[in-house]
Amino acid sequence: MTEVELHGGPLDGWRVEVDETDDDPWIAIVSELGAHPGGRSLYAPGADGRWVWVRDLRWDEL
Predict the structure, then answer these.
(1) pLDDT tens profile 1-57
(2) What is the DSSP string of 32-48?
């Protein structure tokens, strides 16, 4: 596990652990702060290695 900082979106500045060996490199964190309270905020590694916000998901989209 590696700790990364999230950039952009509702969870900007949060630090979370990710599994760097995961073949599907993104995370969807349950969040009350995004566009869909109770849904998830989706983050993925950008080309520069920073974990950036992609979009917010409704609770039933995952």
Answers:
(1) 899 999 999 999 999 999 888 888 899 999 999 999 999 999 999 999 999 999 999
(2) SSSSSTTEEEEEEE-TT
Burial (CB < 10 A; 0-12, 13-18, 19+), residue 39, is buried
**Predicted model pTM:** 0.89
The 3-state DSSP class for residue 25 equals coil
Q: What is the DSSP string of 3-21?
A: EEEEESSTTTT-EEEE-TT
8/30 Cα distance (integer angstroms): 16
